[in-house]
Design goal:
Elements: H1 2-7, H2 10-29, H3 53-83, H4 89-100, E1 110-116, E2 122-124, E3 133-139, H5 142-158, E4 170-173, E5 178-182, E6 190-195, E7 202-207, H6 211-215, E8 219-228, E9 234-241, E10 252-258, E11 264-266, E12 271-272, H7 276-296, H8 305-330, E13 334-340, H9 351-376, E14 379-383, E15 403-404, E16 407-409, E17 416-418, H10 419-429, H11 442-460
Parallel strand pairs: 10-13, 13-14
Antiparallel strand pairs: 1-2, 1-3, 4-8, 5-6, 6-7, 8-9, 10-11, 11-12, 15-16, 16-17
Length: about 500
């Protein structure tokens, strides 16, 4: 039938994705930027395919998006390596500029600089020279280019691996091969026309829109995201295009923390989704027990319908709750949200909670926050997640003994509060950090810890209590903090 003809596109599509990715990656390794336009001639391709030229164009667009996203992640990771290095300022500046250009594999590279004609002062700048300044070029030393390549290899091997597009189950089809038409005389809302492998053959797929899509602002685009699910069924995702909302000019920022007993805690003391977590944990427990039982029988959980249904129920439930809560917050008189980087590790979450966030919550939150930015103008700032659960929002002390379950009691200022709400306030306070950094590795978390300890010492004039300290200066005392200053907040 028509669906089988559409499904037959997946194999050649994957093969073309792999070939196009190999060609684009080879360009990077040769020191060239990603080509922004697909080669117009078939002989310019490094692979053969049974797809039509229009279908190859869609394949190229999908590959370019994936590679551009990957190089962006690599650039961010390399920047963190440069920031944490012990190189001198001049070498770091040059590496920053090479990394910004993504010119990691360039054989030779010269950077524009400005030289003061009177004093000989050199400034690294891509701007136009002003009065008394001359534009010149600075060749990048070969050893720094080698170091940059080494950083990229390290990042690609341990942090941001190159995606394997030959295994994707998603086909992004542009308007040249997929057109969406409004239905005029049938019970369906839309008809989708998709070009198949056979020349001149078009499959027409009918759709009924759900009420959220029907009421969403914007016009339906000639674009479809076609997902081939694990059971072999097809999922068609349409999109609407609408003008971006203007950023909100005023209002307060709200800190948002992913809680342990609630979905979200806010910096102004509210808890959202308190009743959702027990239900979510129960579904997670059932899924884990079923997976263990299936594995003992030699059955892959992915092939079991009951396990897939549990996964779907969890995904749908958490997505609905996240959307409901964030929609409610977006209607308030606020300018933006400060949230933790959801791709961080070691952010204070339990193993079970981290698994839930990794499995479903991260994607749902990121997608919804991006949607709110576009549709409502809400500003979203991601902050470093390291030690947000153990830092006091009042005095800034980071101590392992500050938090016990849902209770937070500072070992320095004796502040007592709900642990999740304290975490949300810490998230809000980090909005002003000039650079957020990352917290994926132990060394990165150590850098954040040192930064927080230095800030505490500068504020209070004393070193923070040792990390292993119980905070009880007298034997048997449970009420006195480890260190108390006259100026400590009450």
């Amino acid at each position: 039938g028509k669906l089988s003809r559409v499904h037959a596109l997946l194999g050649p599509w994957r093969s073309a994705l792999a070939g196009m990715q190999s060609q684009l990656h080879r360009q990077l390794l040769d020191g060239k930027p990603l080509m922004k336009r697909m080669p117009t001639k078939a002989r310019d391709l490094s692979f053969t395919t049974e797809l039509s030229a229009r279908q190859v164009k869609s394949v190229y667009n999908q590959t370019f998006q994936a590679m551009n996203s990957w190089t962006g992640l690599v650039k961010n990771a390399v920047r963190e390596l440069i920031s944490g290095s012990r190189l001198d300022d001049e070498a770091r500046t040059i590496l920053y500029r090479v990394n910004a250009r993504k010119a990691w594999y360039a054989k030779e590279l010269s950077l524009p600089i400005l030289v003061n004609t009177a004093t000989g002062e050199v400034r690294h700048s891509d701007g136009k020279p002003g009065k008394g300044w001359a534009a010149k070029e600075l060749p990048v030393p070969a050893e720094l280019l080698r170091l940059c390549r080494h950083m990229v290899k390290q990042v690609s091997r341990h942090a941001v691996s190159l995606p394997d597009l030959s295994r994707v189950n998603t086909m992004l089809m542009d308007g040249t091969i997929a057109q969406v038409e409004s239905s005029k005389d049938s019970s369906f809302d839309y008809w989708l026309r998709i070009s198949t492998l056979k020349k001149g053959d078009v499959a027409r797929i009918p759709f009924r829109a759900h009420r959220h899509f029907r009421h969403a602002p914007g016009e339906v685009s000639d674009f479809v995201q076609l997902n081939v699910l694990k059971d072999g069924s097809l999922q068609f995702v349409l999109q609407k295009k609408s003008p971006l909302a203007q950023p909100r000019p005023e209002g307060e920022y709200l800190g948002l923390d992913w809680g342990m007993k609630s979905l979200f805690a806010t910096s102004d003391g509210r808890l959202f989704g308190v009743g959702a977590m027990p239900h979510l944990r129960e579904l997670d427990r059932q899924a884990l027990e079923l997976a263990k039982s299936l594995q003992r029988q030699g059955i892959r959980p992915k092939t079991n319908r009951r396990h897939r249904n549990l996964q779907r129920r969890m995904r749908d439930y958490i997505t609905n709750e996240v959307n409901r809560i964030l929609n409610k917050l977006s209607t308030e008189d606020i300018q933006g949200l400060a949230v933790e980087k959801l791709d961080a590790r070691g952010g204070g979450m339990s193993r079970d909670m981290h698994r839930l966030v990794t499995r479903f919550g991260r994607a749902a939150i990121k997608k919804k926050l991006a949607s709110l930015q576009e549709d409502t103008g809400l500003d979203v700032i991601e902050v470093n997640a390291a030690y947000t659960s153990r830092e006091c929002s009042s005095c800034g002390l980071v101590h392992d003994g500050n938090r016990k379950g849902l209770k937070f009691r500072c070992r320095f200022c004796d502040r007592k509060t709900h642990a999740d709400i304290n975490g949300a306030r810490v998230v809000l306070s980090r909005r002003s950090w000039h650079t957020q950094g990352d917290s994926k590795t132990k060394s990165q978390r150590g850098t954040v810890r040192q930064r927080l300890d230095d800030a505490f010492k500068a504020r209070w004039g004393c070193a923070p209590p040792t990390r292993g300290s119980t905070g009880n200066p007298k034997t048997g005392s449970r009420r006195r903090p480890a260190v108390r200053l006259v100026t400590a907040p009450s």
